[in-house]
C-alpha cells in the first residue's frame, strides 16, 4: 500500500520476516552484486526464440572480467555487438531488437549469439522471423 501518496513511497513485504522496505515508485532496485555469484560463465537460451520484434539474452559472469556478447549471421559476420566491457560477477540481460549495428533491420534467418569471456566462449542459435 502507499505510505505517502505525495512522495510516492510504497511499502512491500519482503517475505523475509524482517519487516518492510520503503522505495520510491519507479526507482531502480537492481542488485549490483549477486548474493551468490555464478560458478561459471553461461549464456542461457534467448527468449522468445524464434522472435520477431525483440529477444532477451540472460548470461552469467562468475568474476570481474572482460566479456563480449555479439550476434553473428550464418556467414560468421558480426551483425551487432550487444555488450562489451569489464563487468563485475553477476547475472545480466541484453535485448536484441533485430537491428544491425548500423541500425538497419536484420533479415529473417538464423543467427548466432556468442558470449566470450576469459573463461570460455558459448554460442546459441537465434531465429529471426518477420
Q: What does this molecule look like?
A:
This protein is an all-beta fold. It contains no helices and ten strands. The strands form three sheets. It has a four-stranded antiparallel beta sheet, with no helix packed on it. It has a three-stranded antiparallel beta sheet with strand order 1-2-3, with no helix packed on it. It is elongated, with a radius of gyration of 19 Å.
Give a short synopsis of this structure.
This protein is mainly beta and 130 residues long.
Q: What is the radius of gyration?
A: 19 Å
**Uncertain stretches of 5 or more adjacent residues:** 10-15, 26-31
Overall residue-averaged pLDDT value: 82
| Biggest pleated sheet | 4 strands, antiparallel
End-to-end C-alpha gap: 43 Å
- Described by the principal axes of the CA atoms, the overall outline is elongated
The share of residues in helices is: under 10%
Write the layout of secondary structure elements.
Elements: E1 2-4, E2 9-13, E3 20-24, E4 42-43, E5 55-61, E6 65-73, E7 78-87, E8 90-96, E9 109-117, E10 121-128
Antiparallel strand pairs: 1-2, 2-3, 4-5, 5-8, 6-7, 6-9, 9-10
Summary tags:
single chain, 130 residues
Amino acid at each position: 500500500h502507499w505510505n505517502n501518496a505525495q512522495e510516492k513511497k510504497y511499502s512491500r513485504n519482503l517475505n523475509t520476516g524482517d519487516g518492510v522496505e520503503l522505495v520510491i515508485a519507479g526507482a531502480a532496485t537492481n542488485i549490483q552484486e549477486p548474493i551468490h555469484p555464478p560458478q561459471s560463465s553461461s549464456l542461457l537460451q534467448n527468449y522468445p526464440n524464434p522472435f520477431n520484434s525483440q529477444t532477451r539474452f540472460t548470461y552469467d559472469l562468475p568474476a570481474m572480467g572482460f566479456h563480449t556478447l555479439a550476434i553473428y549471421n550464418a556467414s560468421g559476420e558480426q551483425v551487432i555487438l550487444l555488450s562489451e566491457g569489464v563487468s563485475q560477477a553477476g547475472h545480466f540481460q541484453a535485448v536484441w531488437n533485430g537491428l544491425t549495428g548500423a541500425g538497419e533491420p536484420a533479415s529473417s534467418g538464423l543467427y548466432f549469439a556468442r558470449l566470450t569471456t576469459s573463461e570460455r566462449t558459448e554460442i546459441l542459435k537465434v531465429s529471426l522471423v518477420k
